[in-house]
């Protein structure tokens, strides 16, 4: 079975506190618009065959919608993390994390931004990896963050990033493409991969050691 086949997704609804207290807010948030965009994102996950589990919003945690930060799922086992905080900002330079600059856009395709940092990371991966990946480079950093699951590619919409969307249509048309608008979540450094934990439920757990 492909490693990009999933059965479930975990998401969390947006609290009122997101509007004013989310970390990294760059500009005022339209909360109603943010919730609508999130609802469309969740609907897209359901459309690609995922059973979506929606957690209630937690007003004490403005960033609770960014569920990717709290767990890593490996062979049916969830490894809980210690979410980042401003005092951890020096752990990495310039990029929030690896998926800020590149993500998987297919079983053997890496989608990467065209910034010097992104290209430097890509070159290191190509130098160290034993597998030869294909690459798709997009001009917009935020558009490099995509979700590939069940043969479908969720990517940022042409409304937001027309040049990048055109590249997806030209080079990745073999997949079912689903554009998603995410402007209000991007204002708090949110991206498509941030807002869900994808799970492939298996009948038998595998040893992860």
What labels would you give this structure?
about 210 residues, alpha/beta, DDAH-like, globular, 3-stranded mixed sheet, N(G),N(G)-dimethylarginine dimethylaminohydrolase 1, hydrolase, dimethylargininase activity, amino acid binding, about 25% strand
Topology-level CATH name: L-arginine/glycine Amidinotransferase, Chain A
What structural category arises from helix and sheet content?
Answer: alpha/beta
Please state how the strands of the largest beta sheet are arranged side by side: 2-1-11
Low-confidence spans: pLDDT under 50, at least 5 residues?
87-94
Rg (C-alpha, Å)? 17 Å
Name the CATH homologous superfamily: L-arginine/glycine Amidinotransferase, Chain A
What would CATH call the class? Alpha Beta
The percentage helix is: 10-25%
Mean pLDDT comes to 88
Count of domain modules: 1
Number of helices: 5
Distance between the termini: 20 Å
Order of helices and strands: EHHEEEEEHEEEHEHE
Shape: globular
The biggest beta sheet reads: 3 strands, mixed
CATH architecture: 5-stranded Propeller
Give the strand tally: 11
Family: Belongs to the DDAH family.
Organism: Portunus trituberculatus (Swimming crab)
Protein name: N(G),N(G)-dimethylarginine dimethylaminohydrolase 1
GO molecular function, one term: amino acid binding
């Amino acid at each position: 079975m492909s490693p990009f086949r999933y059965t479930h997704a975990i998401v969390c609804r947006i609290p009122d506190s997101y509007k004013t207290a989310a970390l990294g807010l760059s500009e005022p948030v339209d909360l109603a618009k943010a919730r609508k965009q999130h609802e469309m994102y969740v609907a897209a996950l359901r459309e690609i065959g995922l059973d979506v589990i929606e957690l209630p919003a937690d007003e004490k945690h403005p960033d609770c919608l960014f569920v990717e930060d709290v767990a890593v799922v490996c062979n049916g086992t969830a490894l809980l993390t210690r979410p980042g905080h401003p005092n951890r900002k020096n752990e990495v330079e310039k990029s929030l994390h690896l998926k800020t600059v590149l993500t998987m856009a297919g079983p053997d395709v890496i989608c990467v931004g065209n910034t010097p940092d992104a290209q430097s990371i890509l070159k290191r991966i190509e130098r160290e990896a034993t597998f030869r990946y294909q690459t798709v480079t997009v001009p917009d950093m935020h558009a490099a963050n995509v979700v590939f699951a069940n043969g479908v590619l969720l990517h940022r919409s042409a409304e937001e990033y027309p040049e990048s969307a055109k590249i997806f249509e030209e080079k990745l048309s073999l997949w079912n493409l689903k554009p998603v608008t995410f402007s209000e979540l991007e204002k708090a450094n949110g991206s498509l991969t941030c807002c869900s934990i994808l799970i492939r439920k298996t009948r038998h757990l595998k040893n992860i050691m």
